[in-house]
Amino acid sequence: MNSLLLKRILKSTLLLGLLTGFTVSLAATGDATPAPDFTLKSRSGENIKLSELRGNVVMVNFWASWCGPCRQEMPLLQQLYDRYQGMGFTLLGVNVDEQPAAAQKMLKEIPVDFPILYDSSNKVSKQYQVKAMPSTFMVDRDGNIRHLHQGYKPGYEDDYQQQIRALLKE
């Protein structure tokens, strides 16, 4: 099977996940699990390690430049970052494009100032078992994944905000 066919299959699978987007609250089921630790290079060139952000609520958002809903969601994520970053919250945008240049081009069109990390080998997205674009994980102050959102639909940002507020109060 050639790589072009594999890419088409992957994009089709991700699109299906996107169209059937859903949210899972792991805390409600008692299934909160430790977030896999990772270190990725940011667009500013520094290495960012998830475990070094312990004590903060962290939103980890996996996205791709070819993903329409990711583009739609990005400005809304910036608004959340602006609103909560001074309260013990941070947001990590993890780009999964094979070529960082594709992400950089998109970020010129839709500028954000929250940390953008590059997972061009998809090592971290595999650790997190990302099945849809975008995929957003809410990590509590103790480093546990508490909520998972697969795909994006208008209104998810309201869920994000409620979850951020609740996790910041803990």
From TrEMBL:
<protein>
    <submittedName>
        <fullName>Redoxin</fullName>
    </submittedName>
</protein>
<dbReference type="InterPro" id="IPR036249">
    <property type="entry name" value="Thioredoxin-like_sf"/>
</dbReference>
<dbReference type="Pfam" id="PF00578">
    <property type="entry name" value="AhpC-TSA"/>
</dbReference>
<dbReference type="GO" id="GO:0015036">
    <property type="term" value="F:disulfide oxidoreductase activity"/>
</dbReference>
<keyword id="KW-0676">Redox-active center</keyword>
<keyword id="KW-0732">Signal</keyword>
<dbReference type="InterPro" id="IPR013766">
    <property type="entry name" value="Thioredoxin_domain"/>
</dbReference>
<dbReference type="InterPro" id="IPR000866">
    <property type="entry name" value="AhpC/TSA"/>
</dbReference>
<feature type="domain" description="Thioredoxin">
    <location>
        <begin position="29"/>
        <end position="169"/>
    </location>
</feature>
<dbReference type="InterPro" id="IPR017937">
    <property type="entry name" value="Thioredoxin_CS"/>
</dbReference>
<feature type="signal peptide">
    <location>
        <begin position="1"/>
        <end position="27"/>
    </location>
</feature>
<dbReference type="GO" id="GO:0016209">
    <property type="term" value="F:antioxidant activity"/>
</dbReference>
<dbReference type="InterPro" id="IPR050553">
    <property type="entry name" value="Thioredoxin_ResA/DsbE_sf"/>
</dbReference>
